[in-house]
Amino acid sequence: MDKGQLQQEATELLYREGLTLDRQQWDDWLALWTDDCELWIPAWITEHEQITDPQREISLLYLSGKNYLKERTDRVLKGMSPASVPMPRTCHSVSNILIDAYTSDSMTVQSVFRVDYYHHKKVYGFFGHYTHQLVQQAGGWKIHKKQVTLMNDFISEVLDVYLI
Hints:
By secondary structure, the chain is an alpha+beta fold.
């Protein structure tokens, strides 16, 4: 597969991830991930340095395994997440999508994002950089790892999977 085709497929997957979150299509969002996935938002140590080990240092969010992603979405669906009631309305924008490295069955993709959301009659937003590690599984690309470098890490209300 040539790099142009990989670029197109990576772009579509990242766009689809944002769209499923915006539409609150939780099962479709979960289907984009591998079973052994990892979602990590490292905390900042200084203005220009982040933690490097989610096992030893405090993260803004760290979920290892699809079952933990499902647990988060189940809490939202069942109203067990007070911070998510009512559910915020979101708008994910992803751009500057570039493939860093690739093989026939994996690729590392860099991009930038902005998520605007409306909650309790106020507008908020997050922005930063994504690093996605994508792998080929069952004839399609899946998210194996997603690291979010949150550039505005002052969190005034809530931070959850649907806001990044």
